[in-house]
Amino acid sequence: xxxxxxxxxxxxxxxxxxxxxxxxxxxxxxxxxxxxxxxxxxxxxxxxxxxxxxxxxxxxxxxxxxxxxxxxxxxxxxxxxxxxxxxxxxxxxxxxxxxxxxxxxxxxxxxxxxxxxxxxxxxxxxxxxxxxxxxxxxxxxxxxxxxxxxxxxxxxxxxxxxxxxxxxxxxxxxxxxxxxxxxxxxxxxxxxxxxxxxxxxxxx
Length: 204
Fold this sequence. Notes:
The chain contains 8 helices and 6 strands, in the order αβαααααβββββαα. It is α+β, with helices and mostly antiparallel strands.
């Protein structure tokens, strides 16, 4: 569990870099999905650099969370994280899990978001297949380079993130492994309770 949480923490930490690093360059012909991601980046950079909001950390964090959440598809994340354990759930169980999983993710990256302030990002490629897209980026921070891919799905005309992949490691795959392992030893109700009380730090 410790190693799994470490990988997830790393992925989340790197993933949120995209809202704090100033774009070094965009592909010669800016594509639609990349354009929408960049729009979110620009909005968050304005919030981070707002002098008045720097005096009100709570308000700034709420604004950052609201802006970022508009680009995340938590419903897709929840379904994919539970995988085969999603179908047996009632509509109420699904609703509770989705909300608590969303809270878990928010708690996981909230502090990390404010810890990154310098860096550069290059949007290196964009692949689209139907309603799914993959945007590849290369992040430079403190002299290190990391390839980070964003998986997105188009719903109601908007492209939203449903997974991050860094060095071939998917955050959703990691959570899916944790949830699957946990549900072999405990009930779904117990999992929901642990998600609410522990913030997901120890769900197995």
